[in-house]
Amino acid sequence: MTTEHNPSALAIPPRRILLGPGPSMVHPRVYEAIGRPLVGHLDPLFLELMTQMQQRLRQVFCTENQLTVAISGTGSAGMEAALVNLVEPGDEVLVCVNGVFGNRMSDIVGRVGGMLHRIDRPWGEVFDPQEIQEALDRSPATRVVAIVHAETSTGAWQPLVDIGRICRERDCLLLVDAVTSLAGVELRIDDWWIDACYSGTQKCLSCPPGLAPLTFGPRAVDKLQHRQTKVASWYLDLTLIQQYWSERQRLYHHTAPISMNYALHEALALVLEEGLESRYERHRLHSRALMAGLAELGFAPAAQQGHRLPVLNAVWVPEGIDEAQVRRRLLDEYNIEIGGGLGELAGKVWRVGLMGESARRDNVHSLLMALGELLTSTTDSAEGTAALDAARAVYVS
């Protein structure tokens, strides 16, 4: 019987190996947490969970920012929340664009009436701090600089320390998109002079999608408190949301997604139990093994050398490979998901996520073995064996 005539079959999906750009795989403890009994969103037990979750988020963000919350929505809601709260009509904003998500930030700036200044790099490359300094020289009234730390569409990893220093010297706010980097690669909000940052639960936190961790530092909070106009979005207005997250008030704002908060609370516990440095090293190790194996199969990295994300590995698809067909066969025949390209890289690259629970040796081996078979149409290909051997060599070195 097909799923068309048996709709209940759709409710029991297969167990996929999720190696795309998100969502990542989920730890059994997080699955268990999301199924716990509901309580009210103002129940004392839930309010205590919120307090604990804020403390854990501060540890993972490496910050002491009081305004550190989980926005009810995906990472895109975090992006929009950050911008609609920091940008008023007429404010000058510099957006650094080197992929899909810089483009999205530019769009939001226009929607809230900000004056957009934009600098671009080729997709897969990162920005030199000098470029940002020169852009601020051209537009000295800029109030916010927005940049992506880990560009999910390209696999590029943007250094931030010098940019934070430049923004602090120019008295403008630094807003960072860390949707793909939080808990996967080093991110230090306070030490790097980052004023506002948002992320998503479904990447390196290995939690289902549905919440957007967000933190505002003192300078961002000051901007929020001294706005001349109301925040354009009622739902994402942090002047209201922070009252719900404040331990002193806990004023009702909206009905929080209780089960998703359970899940994030547990996912953060797992991150902290592993330790941030150990977690970063785990991602680096499995990325090195994966890329060594993919190189044996003829795949070259797409992001700029020296700035390649270990959590999101983008590679050029060699000529002669039907990239969409191979991805579909990986899904149908091996239950492995990887991502295709977005925007101007559509049809040209694959994006292989090794984020959180997905960053495991077995997953690296399974993908390389499957690709070796699919690309050579044999189950004992020399190419596949060489790819596995290259990955194993990384693990034993």
Layout of strands and helices, then pairs:
Elements lengths: L16 E2 L9 H7 L9 H18 L5 E6 L2 H12 L5 E6 L2 H12 L3 E6 L8 H10 L3 E7 L1 E2 L4 E2 L3 H9 L3 E5 L18 E3 L12 E6 L1 H8 L12 H8 L12 H17 L1 H21 L3 E2 L10 E5 L6 H12 L1 E2 L1 E2 L8 E5 L7 H16 L5 H15 L1
Parallel strand pairs: 1-13, 3-4, 3-5, 5-8, 8-9
Antiparallel strand pairs: 2-10, 6-7, 9-10, 11-12, 12-15, 14-15
Report on this model:
By secondary structure, the chain is of the alpha/beta class. The chain folds into 2 domains: 7-22 and 276-396, Aspartate Aminotransferase, domain 1 (Alpha-Beta Complex), CATH 3.90.1150; 28-272, Aspartate Aminotransferase, domain 2. 42% of the residues lie in helices and 15% in strands. The protein contains 13 helices and 15 strands. It has a 7-stranded mixed beta sheet, with helices on both faces. It has a 4-stranded antiparallel beta sheet with strand order 11-12-15-14, covered by helices on one side. Helix 10 runs parallel beside helix 12 (361-376). 47% of the residues are buried. The model has no long low-confidence stretch (mean pLDDT 95).
Helix/strand-derived category reads alpha/beta
Note the beta-strand portion.
Answer: 15-25%
Tell me the overall shape: globular
Q: Level of helix content?
A: 40-55%
Provide mean pLDDT, rounded.
Answer: 95
Looking at the structure, the CATH topology of the largest domain is: Aspartate Aminotransferase, domain 2
The helix tally amounts to: 13
Largest sheet: 7 strands, mixed
Task: Provide the low-confidence segments as ranges.
Answer: none
Trace the largest sheet across and list its strands.
2-10-9-8-5-3-4
Please report the first level of CATH classification, the CATH class of the largest domain. Alpha Beta
Q: What is the level-2 CATH architecture name of the largest domain?
A: 3-Layer(aba) Sandwich
> Could you spell the SSE succession in H and E letters?
EHHEHEHEHEEEHEEEHHHHEEHEEEHH
